[in-house]
Automatic annotation (TrEMBL):
This is Phospholipase. GO terms for biological process: phospholipid catabolic process. It comes from the Bacteria. PANTHER family: PHOSPHOLIPASE D (PTHR18896:SF60). GO terms for cellular component: plasma membrane. Pfam families: PLDc_2.
Amino acid sequence: MSDVKSILIPGRNCWTRSETHDAGVLVDARAYYRELYRAIRKARRSIVITGWQFDSDVTLLRGEDLEEANGGEVRLLPLLDQMCRENPELHVYILAWDFSMLLAMEREWMQNVLFNWTTNERLRFRFDSSSPLYGAHHQKLVVIDGVMAFTGGMDVCDCRWDDRDHPARSKLRCDSGRDPHGPYHDVQTVLTGPAVKPLAELFEARWAHSGGGEIHLEPVHRDDLTFEATMPAPPGPVAISRTFGKTILPPQDEVQEIRALYVDAIAAAERFIYIENQYFSSRAIYGALVKRMRAAGRPRLQVMLVLPRQPEALREQIAMGVAQVRLLRALREVASETGHGFAVYGSAATDEDGSDVFTYIHSKVLIVDDTFMTIGSANTTNRSLGLDSELNLSWEARAPGDEVSRAIRRVRVSLMAEHVGLAGVAALRPLVTATHLVETLDALAQAGQHRLRPHPLETVFDQNPLFKPLEPEEFLIDPEESVLDESLFEALHKGDDGLFASGVRLLSRLLVGKSCEAARRHSAILPCAPVQEEEGGALS
């Protein structure tokens, strides 16, 4: 049994590697929301949550799971408020992205009032506007008592709940009086142990950078840290990787660990690459796949992607969808030319009228050779790898077939079985060996007897030929860097004697105050500009 060349390199494609006491993979929101409910109910000192989106009244337990609540509160904000009222030692901090106005009609309104003015004083809610110009805070992280953490692709908001059966219709997928939404797939991780500490520090720094001041999430000794995962995560250390775009206020250097993580993992692939993601428009990942496919003397790969049939919103269908289809068609041509297996799939349930109802894929998973796996918040887009804030956890095996490798394989096979719609040992056996996976999946998809479908690789312009002449060439919705010119960053950092730079420093003190001082103590997490001392000892 030969050793596997390590992909994870702290300082390049991950921030740190830490041990876990226990870790699990939670597939789909029913599993995640249920475990989050249980963790909230047991919390003693602190609950911290950061995400892209929240909804105050999202229901965490549904259907038969409601029996566990015994008639008690199961909606997110009322539950958190109740826990604060019942436990005077509990503090709750919620940090949400201060979203673009383009999304205003899709978000719950007046959340500052709703979260802060109608709840216990120890429940604090903030909007975080410290992302780069045109960027978003997209990390999803929950830390309970400093000793238990959840992270992955899932926010705690409406229109996300589903279970692994993904029926075409389900009354349980109804939020706040809305009509039930369609099938929805996502993946989250849960962990305990030393790896929680850097995640807690990450939230502390994010809270400080948002202007919320300094908080300390001291770990609480707990003997009741249990959870019911969909399947165990691999044992051993977990690597934490991040994306942060460059900002001026508060000062923060760019971090592109997840970009390097994907590129390095693809370059190392010997047998297969499995990706499930909400989008595929990253030029860096496209380039890495082409480079690996064209590499001389390397083994032929099986490359499989599972994606939504099309992005949710029309603006994303026009922008992200067009770029995605162009890249995927080009990859298909390169794979055909070089002899690699390549396929893109969707997953659908058959409705009563015989039509397909596609599952919306929102997860962000990459598995290579059953020896490497990363799960997180980062989409395979330009902005997720260079501009937005993102967070991924990764595991890698030391040798093919070792305990970590077997655990990764179980996760991969389970996810593929969900998308295909297979169950039972005999049915899953063809998915275990990766030698002819694309051929196996193609046969299942073409037969139409299960859930798997060939992805149509078409855009809204393809669907309506009258719109084809209107198809644009370039889009700004998916940049890899901030649209703010680099020369301005340099002027602000280096022009210490200029009037403009002095004015920015004054504005920084007024807007950020002590928040950046707290963040400087976490400079390994969110790097601040060097601390300079002026006359009189004041910090700039």
